[in-house]
Specification:
The chain is of the alpha+beta class and about 800 residues long. Helix content is about 40%, strand content about 25%. It is built from 14 helices and 32 strands. Strands 11, 12, 14, 15, 16, 18, 19 and 21 form an eight-stranded mixed beta sheet that branches. The protein has a five-stranded antiparallel beta sheet with strand order 23-32-31-28-29. Helix 8 packs across helix 9 (about 490-570) and helix 10 crosses helix 11 (about 640-655). The protein starts with 8 loop residues before the first helix and ends in a 5-residue tail after the last strand.
Length: about 800
């Protein structure tokens, strides 16, 4: 019926201010309203009722507040309300089937009144929406005049669950059937139950003014039906079948004719089936049916006009957004950095979906497609709104603000609700979402931080104002605050087209501004061209020099890598471990490979020879000297003492006549506990004597090997006792620099050595290594560091 009239923004706003007023002043005075209703040509037992949006007006119950009959045609009632109350009300004759008509035989709009004083309201009623005789609706010529509203048959049906073709008979006794509406949205308290299939019967009286005349009939349904008129099958819509597998529902979009038979008492019977009613009901759809009647001439005229209007509306308001959608999506593909084109394309797709699916849901005949059209139509609304604000953010801000997350969450929630509950009256929430976005845009105009401030932004703002204007008109139409001047109530599309055109103008304007900027830049380029050419020449020269340096560096890097490989290959992979000695070695190569070397050899008599050396220079040349010296040591080790071996190696290096290439070298020959030591060009050897708990420096001052010919090398002999320790090292550790260009020096080496005499050779080396690394603290290591530790253990198992 007209319960949708209760959903009005005026009473909601009025109720809000009424509550605020009552909170501020609970002692507000009351005012009286006297309602006078004058009825033309009232019947003998005429009753008049008033109903509206307040408890005193029965909260829209059409048959509760009856007016007193003062005279034959005058009915009156006085009620009290608090001052400031906003009333919305209607006049009925006790049922929504019997709403009051004005002088043009049209239904009155909702009456509204803001109460500020005692008031008298007089309403003249020229008739009622329908006529009843013996509780049956009368079909007469007056009810189906062209200016009258549709006759909506959705209530006062007699219903019986199950299926029996005898129930279609004209004279079947249905007096014990239940009275229900045909929406099948009955709640649990209703005695009527739906079980996939049932019969509905509606009795009416045909006035002689309609005998042998035709009416237009339309069935709106989500199931399948058979329409019987006075016992005869009139139309079949869809396939009812005997099971869900045979059931094939169909919506009816074509008006059909019903020729009224020349008799008074008539009956319309509907055999109806819907096996999908549970799923439809969960989504908010009414799984039942509604039958509409109208005079046939008006319907034919409306069909012609509506077809043209609908086709034009769908074509214009769908095609324009789709064309612009593809335009902006291609712009985004060619320039992905301009994300505003992607957001705007999706926004346009939402606009197109609102129009397209909004019309498709009214013309589709498959219930599944109808439901899908409702879902996609509902989903299109938050899509258009959210990606509209994302377009604005991309145009206005250098970085999308964090509050976009809030709008995204609202988008997700509304998308879910609109898709899965498309008939849950979510339009109010969609409009609130749109209102929040409008407020965001308005507030953003006062925010300067992080803005791009694009040129021509006023064009987009103008388009947005046009959109806001038409959406506002749409809200007023949806809530029946204003009346549409045309048959088409979907005016928001004009705002959408305005917004789309403004965006196109904005892009064109920016393109023209870009061209102007380009001309200006070309002038600057012309002025700077000579400087640029000179800079390019200089840059080319610098690039050539850079490449030469890079090739040289690559060559040196390769040489250093090869030298490091050579250096490491000369070191022993394994070495003998006498029972009475604990021996450990360590080498750390520098960033530029040096010439450090160590070795350990043994012979059949278990004599051990240990070598530690440092060739001058870096790279491959140092590696060659080390490899020569290593070979000579291996050749002479069994036949000569350390000093003689050093002299022979010196003679060989002198004979090779390699300039500026020298090598410091220390040799130790260990036989049981006796040590013979000789050295040239190397740091002193440190000896810790456990017996005296002190460290001795063993200094042999000789030139490095290869410095001059006829060198004699001094030898020293010593005896190792249990706990004595020999420490040999290259100058890479003693001359190690820290960030302040201070050397690690011998004193610190001795301190670390003395503090860790109780450690094993390996642990002692680790302590020295850690102390050295801590000392340089990340500074470059400019020379190799080599350590050799020999600790006397005596005999061990």
């Amino acid at each position: 019926m007209h319960k949708n009239l209760t959903i009005s923004i005026i009473p909601l706003v009025a109720l809000f201010f009424s509550l605020v007023t009552s909170c501020v002043n609970n002692d507000a005075p009351f005012h009286k309203i006297k309602f006078n209703v004058i009825v033309y040509n009232p019947v003998e037992n005429q009753k008049v009722f008033i109903t509206g949006n307040k408890p005193e007006l029965a909260d829209w119950n059409p048959s509760k507040i009856q007016l007193d009959r003062v005279s034959d045609s005058l009915f009156s009632k006085t009620l009290k309300f608090k001052r400031g109350t906003s009333l919305v009300f209607k006049i009925t004759a006790g049922s929504w089937w019997l709403e009051a008509l004005d002088s043009n035989e049209n239904l009155f709009n909702n009456f509204t009144l803001d109460l500020n004083k005692d008031t008298t309201v007089t309403i003249i009623v020229y008739g009622w929406k329908n006529t009843f005789i013996d509780e049956k609706v009368v079909f007469n010529e007056k009810r189906f005049r062209p200016n009258r509203e549709y006759f909506v048959l959705d209530d006062l049906w007699k219903y019986h669950s199950g299926d029996n073709h005898e129930w279609s008979a004209e004279n079947f006794d249905d007096s014990n059937w239940q009275i229900v509406n045909s929406y099948i949205n009955w709640d649990d308290s209703s005695h009527a139950k739906w079980n996939n299939i049932g019969w509905f019967r509606f009795h009416f009286i045909a006035d002689t003014s309609l005998w042998n005349k035709s009416l237009a009939l339309l069935t709106n349904q989500l199931g399948a039906s058979q329409i019987y008129y006075n016992g005869k099958l009139l139309y079949s819509n869809g396939v009812i079948g005997n099971s869900k597998a045979e059931f094939n529902p169909s919506q009816v979009r074509i008006w059909k004719t019903l020729k009224i038979e020349p008799k008074f008492n008539q009956v319309l019977a509907v055999r109806y089936a819907n096996y999908n009613w549970k799923e439809q009901k969960k989504m908010g759809f009414a799984p039942g049916f509604t039958i509409y009647f109208k005079d046939i001439n008006t319907i034919f005229q409306q069909i012609s006009e509506n077809t043209r209007g609908t086709s034009y509306h769908q074509m214009v308001f769908t095609l324009i957004p789709l064309i612009l959608f593809f335009l902006h999506i291609f712009i985004f593909i060619f320039n992905p950095k301009q994300k505003e084109n992607l957001f705007y394309a999706i926004c346009l797709l939402g606009f197109a979906g609102i129009t397209y699916f909004g019309i498709e849901k009214m013309i589709a005949i498959s219930p599944k497609l109808i439901i899908l059209d409702f879902q996609l139509n509902g989903l299109s609304v938050p899509v258009a709104i959210f990606f509209g604000i994302m377009t604005f953010f991309s145009l206005e801000y250098q970085k999308i603000p964090l509050r976009a997350i809030f709008y995204f969450l609202l988008f997700i929630i509304l998308s879910f609700l609109n898709f899965f509950y498309p008939l849950s009256n979510l339009s109010t929430f969609n409009y609130i979402y749109f209102g929040i976005i409008v407020v965001e845009v308005l507030i953003s105009n006062f925010i300067k931080k992080g803005k791009k401030n694009p040129k021509g932004g006023w064009i987009v703002v103008f388009g947005l104002v046009v959109l806001i204007f038409f959406v506002t008109i749409q809200i007023l139409l949806d809530y029946a605050i204003i009346q549409s001047l045309t048959e088409n109530n979907q005016v928001f599309g004009y705002g959408m087209v305005g917004f789309a055109l403004s965006m196109s103008l904005f892009l064109s304007y920016n393109f023209s501004q870009t061209n102007k900027n380009l001309e200006s830049q070309l002038k600057k380029v012309k002025e700077l061209s000579e400087k640029t050419i000179e800079q390019e020449r200089l840059a080319s020269k610098l690039e050539m020099e850079r490449r030469i340096m890079e090739n040289e560096n690559n060559r040196k890097t390769l040489e250093l890598e090869n030298a490091k490989k050579l250096q490491l290959s000369l070191l022993p992979k394994d070495f003998p471990e006498p029972d009475n000695l604990d021996i450990a070695f360590y080498m750390s190569t520098a960033s530029e490979v040096g010439g450090d070397y160590y070795d350990i050899l043994s012979d059949d008599s278990n004599q051990i020879m240990i070598a530690i050396g440092d060739a001058t220079g870096h790279g491959v040349s140092a590696g060659i000297i080390v490899s020569i010296v290593k070979g000579l040591i291996h050749q002479f080790r069994t036949d000569f003492d350390p000093s003689e071996i050093l002299r022979k190696i010196n003679d060989v290096l002198i004979s090779m006549k390699i300039s500026n290439v020298y090598m410091g070298l220390t040799l130790l020959k260990i036989n049981n506990f006796q040590v013979i030591l000789s050295s040239g060009g190397m740091p002193p050897v440190l000896l810790y004597k456990k017996n005296g708990n002190q460290i001795q420096d063993i200094i042999i001052k000789r030139m490095p090997l290869g410095a001059t010919n006829r060198l004699d090398f001094e030898e020293q002999s010593l005896i190792l006792n249990h706990g004595d320790i020999l420490l040999l090292f290259s100058d890479g550790i003693s001359e190690l620099f820290n960030a302040d260009r201070e050397m690690f020096d011998y004193t610190r080496i001795k301190e670390v050595f003395y503090e860790n005499i109780d450690k094993s050779s390996y642990e002692l080396i680790n302590k020295l290594k850690n102390a050295a690394n801590k000392w340089r603290d990340g500074t470059d290591q400019l020379d190799d560091m080599t350590l050799v530790v020999v600790k006397c253990l005596d005999k061990i198992n």
